Amino acid sequence: MPSAPAPSDPPEPAEDSQRRRGLDHLLTIPKGIAQVDFQPNHWTGLIFLAALFVGGWQFGVFGLLGTVVATLTAYLLGVSWRDRVSLGLEGFCGTLIGVSLVLYLDARWMTALLVVGGAIAGSVLTSALRVVLTPYDLPTFTAPFCVITSVMVIGGPSFGRVWAEHAGSAPPSATAPGTAMSWAYFWKGTFNGVGQVFFQDKWYVGLIFLAGLVVAGWATGLVALASSLIGLLTGWALGAQAADLGAGLYGYNSVLTGLALFGTFVAVTSVSAVYAVIGTVAAAGVTAGIGTLFEVVGGHTLTWPFVLVTWVFLAAVPMLNKIERAG
């Protein structure tokens, strides 16, 4: 005798379904912030957002503005919801555009307008770069943010209403030169390397960002901390200015490179761990060269070292039999 069919779950009420969809849409914003460090975790994103506000209200407000505008632009232009927007992959460049522009141009209405325009342009550029890079299986990373912010900051002095009240952005070594390393520079620089991914130079803000990464996974937090330390030690070994090391300026590109090359885009093995370490060292080394290059034209290092180094290391993977892409 055939068994009776199993009872099916009752359909979800339309009001509950609508509420759930609304929550899913809302959570794309903290996910976008978290994706700066490759984490599709809304709790991590909320902790990151809190860290930005601890660093200064302007960083939280303008970072949030950039994330919302970039995410909304991608959604309205028809970027895939399931594969991109819902995971926060269309928001993180907007986050960095917002935080960087308020840092370099100060908190003004003109800056807010530039963040909106930059986030929209960054969203379009993200799609354009995906078309170019997808055949090579390379992500866009933060390249759209780097391009948009570089163009705006380099072009800023040409526009009086943009540059009239721009904030100073000289490195710490401009007022505290020297290569003598202290314990304070060492431990603060390790945490600052994590925070400088979001342009934050207070060690306790970096610690909050690190806590957000640990929420996503303890191994993720450990990789970020180790990568920041490797970047700092590389800069120290090469004779970088101690104040810049203490501010985390040689650590943040290494943090992003380490996270990308160990677990996010490259499968975790003992060989890939060594590969990731080499990448983090390279990112710290390239930081000085990129910084010097952009200094000539009034630009900033941003995350260009991470983008360029990680593109090279990922592009090489198909030729390396002992290294495999993740997933």
Automatic annotation (TrEMBL):
Annotated site residue numbers, Important for channel permeability: T303
Gene3D superfamilies on file: Ammonium transporter AmtB like domains
Alphabetized UniProt keyword annotations: Cell membrane, Membrane, Transmembrane, Transmembrane helix
Listed Pro residues bias regions: 1-11
Keyword Cell division set for record: no
An annotated Gene Ontology molecular function: urea transmembrane transporter activity
GO CC list: plasma membrane
Main location: membrane
Domain of life per record: Bacteria
Residues annotated as signal peptide: none
Protein's cellular compartments: Cell membrane
UniProt feature coiled coil, ranges: none
Record field: transmembrane: 46-75, 87-105, 111-133, 145-164, 204-237, 249-268, 274-294, 301-320
Keyword flag Cell membrane: yes
Region Disordered, residue ranges: 1-20
Membrane topology type: Multi-pass membrane protein
Family that this chain belongs to: Belongs to the urea transporter family.
Protein name: Urea transporter
